[in-house]
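Appendix B, record 7
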Amino acid sequence: MGSSSPEANALSRCSLEDWINSGLVTIRSTSSLVALRRTYSSSTTS
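Structure tokens (predicted):
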């Protein structure tokens, strides 16, 4: 199992980077959606 440990480490690293990247993208998309909702609600209310 010693030869599979480095592969697992590389997999975990790649998955971690993907998770971080996806998280940043989701945060950005959600923030932009919230901004759009705020502008839309303010325009409709005014």
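Remarks on this record: The chain is about 90% helix and 0% strand. The CA atoms of residues 4 and 10 lie 10 Å apart.
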